[in-house]
Amino acid sequence: MSLQPYIKLLKTIEEREEALRKLSDAELTEVATELGNAELPYDRDDLAELCALGREAARRTLGERPFDTQLIGMMALLDGHVAEMATGEGKTLTGALAAVGFALRGQRVHVLSVNDYLARRDAEWMRPLYTLLGVEVGWISQESTTEERRAAYAADITYASVSELGFDVLRDRLATDVSELVVPEPNVAIIDEADSVLVDEARVPLVLAGAAEPAESDAAMAELVRRLRPGIDYKVDDDGRNVHLTDTGINVVEKALGGVDLFSAEDTTLLSRVNLALHAHALLHRDVHYVVRDGKVRLINESRGRIALLQRWPDGLQAAVEAKEHLTPSETGEVLDSITVQSLVLRYPIRCGMTGTAMAVAEQLREFYELEVAVIAPNKPNIRIDEEDRLYATAEEKEEAVVEKVKEVHATGRPILIGTQDVAESERLAKRLRRAGLECVVLNAKNDAEEAAVIAEAGTYGRITVSTQMAGRGTDIRLGGSDMRDRDRVVKTGGLYVIGYGRYPSSRLDDQLRGRAGRQGDPGGSVFYVSVEDDLITTNLPEAKGYRVSSADGEITDPAWKEMVNHAQRIAEGQLLELHRNTWRYNQIIDVQRSVVLEQRRAVLHEDLGSRQLAVDCPETYQRLVEEVGEEEVARAARLVTLYHLDRGWADHNAFLADLREGIHLRFLGRRDPLDEFNRDAVPAFKGFLDEARARAAEMFEKLEVVDGRLDVAAAGVKRPSTTWTYMVQDQPFSTDLENIVGRVKNLMGRD
Fold this sequence. Notes:
Subunit structure: Monomer and homodimer. Part of the essential Sec protein translocation apparatus which comprises SecA, SecYEG and auxiliary proteins SecDF. Other proteins may also be involved.
Distance between the termini: 59 Å
Domain Helicase C-terminal: 398-560
GO molecular function, one term: ATP binding
Domain SecA family profile: 1-558
Shape: flat
Number of helices: 30
Structural class: alpha/beta
Strand content: 5-15%
Helix content: 40-55%
Oligomer: single chain
Number of strands: 26
Radius of gyration: 29 Å
C-alpha cells in the first residue's frame, strides 16, 4: 500500500509543532479535548494536528520526539492497517499515539500484546503521555483481581495480553448476573507483535474448563510405556505430532497388562490410557514442552518460550505427563467454552497492529483478519551484516563450531546474543560455553521473570547471552548496556553479534532474532548455524541424504544443501499455515452456533428473557411462586435456571463437537472431505438446541422449592464450577484411538 498520503502531511505536522511548543500543559490538554469533538475518521487537518500534538506530548512526558517514521506508522494504524516497523523503531510509542487518536474520539481501545509483562510495562511507560492528553489507561495481568480487571477495562485505553483478554471474555460467558460482567463491548484492537498474536497464537484455541473431580494417577501405565523401545515397540511420525504402537509394541503391552486385547469392545478406555501415556512419554519432553516447577507441570508456550501460567493440556494428557514425572495429579475438569484468536480479534469493528515481520504473513493477515500491511522504512538505514548460514553434518559438529565462533568473537569484546530453540538446548549450550571458559547469561522459561534485565544488558561490552525465543521480549538491546556507557567501545567491535543456534520453523522468527542487532542504524551482525540433524531438517526432509562434508570440522558448503535448509523451512511454514487454516475452517460453524447461544444468553441477562419464557411455559407455577416470594426473586431463579441449561447444553454440545472432530479424519479413508463431514454432522446436532434448553429449564423450574423465603435453585440441580482454569490445546491433536486402530489395520494390510 502507498504511504504517500501520510508522507505529504509531514511538512504540515512540522509547521504546527512550533506553535504547540509554546502552549502550557493545560493548554495542550485542552487542544486534545477539542480535537476529540469530531468523529472518526480524522480529516486531513485534524490528522496533522493530532500527529503534531502527539509528538509534542511525547517530547514533554517521555523525553522522546517521535520520528517521522513513527508518525507515518501512527497514521497507518488509525487507518486500520498493520504497520511493519523494524526492531528498535519505536513501535510502542507509535501504538500509544494511535491509541490516543482513537480514544479522543470516543473509542474504547484495547492494546493487545503477547504477554503480561509487556502489557504492564507499556501501560505504565506511556501513562504520562496519556495523562497529558486527557485519556485514562489501565492494564491487566494474570494476577489481576476481578475488580482490578473491571477498573482497567473501564479506562479509555486498556493494555492486556491476548490470552488474558480471551479468558476474560470466556469467563463473562458464564456470568449469571449483569454485575458480574467484566469486559465491555469492543471498539478498537491495536495489536502489538501482530504476527505473533494473529498467526502464532492463533494456532492454539483458548479454552476455559471447570473443576469436576480429582484426577487419578496412571503411574502403572507411565511405567509400562517407559520400558517400550523406540523404533521397535512404537514409532513417532515424521512430523513429530503423532506416535503409534507397532505390532510388536501392541503384543508387548497386551502381555504386560495380563494378556488383554487392547482393541476389545469390552474396555474401550484401555487403549486410550496406553495412548495418553505413550504421547506423554514420546512426544512431550521436559524442558522443551514443559518444565517442572514447585511440584507442578508448567507448560511452555512454543511461540514465546515462556511459562504459560494457568494453562494445561486436556485432562487425560495432563494427568499422563504428571504420572510420567511422578507428580500428584491435578483436578480433572470439563471444557465449558473456547474461543479462537480469530474470533476474539474479529469482535472488534476496528483492528490494526504493528510488528517487525508482517510482510511474511501478509496473505494470512488479509485472509483471516482483513488487514493490509503498511511497510514503514527505518528511520536510519540498516547496516547490519547478515552472514550466510553455516551448515554442518551433525549437531555435535554444529555445537563445536558455535563454541569456537563465540570464543573468537568474544575475544574482541563484542557482545553476543545466541538464540536457541528450547530450554534444554539453551542450558546444554550454556554449560558447554562455560566449560570452554566463556561465562554467559541464560534466559529461558525457567527464569523468564528476569527477562527485562537480561535483555537490557545484552549489548554490554563482552557480554554473552543465551536466550530461547526472542519474539515479544520487548526490551531494546542498546549498545554499551542499558545506560549505553560503553557504546563507543562496543560500536568499534562491530556492535551486537547475533548467532542463531539453528533455523526456526518460520523465517519470521529468524528475522526477529536477527533484528535484535542493527537497531536505529547501529552496526551489528548475524549468522545462523544449522546441522542436518536439526529437527527442522529431520522432521520436514527425513529422506534427505547424499551431502558431502567440505572440511574436517564437518561443515557442508554445497549451495544445493544450503537451499535444502530453506526448503525444509518452507515445508514447516506450510504446515503451520495449514494448522492456522484448520483452526479457522473447523471453527466457522462452531462460531455461528456459539453466536446463537450467546445472543440468547445476552437476552436472558439483560432483557429478563428467562423469566418471560418460563411465565409462558409454566404459567401456574410461575404465578404461584410470584405470590409466595415476589416477582424479583422469581426473576432471579428463572435467570439462573435458564442460564444453567444454556451453559450445560453448550458444554455438552462442545464435547460432542470435540469427539466429532477427533474422529472425522477417518472419513478421509472413504474419500470424503473431513470438513464437509464435520459440518454435515455439526449442523443437525445443534438443531433444536434452544428449544431443548428451554424445555429442560421449564422442567427444573417446576421443581423449585421455597426455603427461607428464597427459591432453592441449588437443590433443584443448578451447579456452577467451583474453580476454572485454561487449557492449552493444539487444533491438530495427537492421534486418537481410532487413528491407532486404522494404523494397525494398515500394518496388517501391508503384511498381507
